[in-house]
């Protein structure tokens, strides 16, 4: 689990997060269908690209833990 349980979000923030996640999953599914692959593969590639673009010193969630980008 990437986020500490003590972080509390307002109902509005929770709703926004859910909306963004739903749209992201739908976009991954559409891209996967067009390319004949699984949505999970699209998600993994997207995550990899985001980590690669992160500036040095930024914390990223990779391989199940937080790590500082070098």
Please give a structural write-up:
The protein contains two helices and two strands, in the order H-H-E-E. The protein is mainly alpha-helical and 70 residues long. The protein has a two-stranded antiparallel sheet with strand order 1-2. A hairpin with a 2-residue loop joins strand 1 and strand 2 (65-68). Helix 1 packs across helix 2. The two termini are 23 Å apart.
Biggest β-sheet strands, sense, barrel: 2 strands, antiparallel
> Which segments are poorly predicted (pLDDT under 50) over 5 or more consecutive residues?
none
* DSSP summary: helix tally: 2
* Side-by-side strand order of the widest sheet: 1-2
Query: Structural class, from secondary structure content?
Result: mainly alpha
CA gyration radius, whole angstroms: 15 Å
Percentage of β-strand residues:
5-15%
H/E element sequence: HHEE
Record keyword descriptors for this entry:
70 residues, two-stranded antiparallel ribbon, 57% helix, 2 helices, flat, mainly alpha
Summary of the model, kept short:
This protein is mainly α and 70 residues long.
What's the arrangement of secondary structure elements?
Layout: H1 11-35, H2 39-53, E1 59-62, E2 65-68
Antiparallel strand pairs: 1-2
Helix pairs in contact: 1-2
């Amino acid at each position: 689990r990437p986020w500490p349980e003590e972080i509390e979000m307002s109902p509005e923030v929770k709703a926004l997060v859910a909306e963004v996640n739903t749209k992201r999953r739908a976009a991954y599914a559409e891209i996967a269908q067009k390319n004949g692959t699984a949505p999970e593969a699209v998600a993994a590639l997207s995550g990899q690209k985001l980590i690669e673009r992160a500036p040095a010193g930024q914390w990223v969630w990779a391989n199940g833990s937080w790590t500082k980008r070098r």
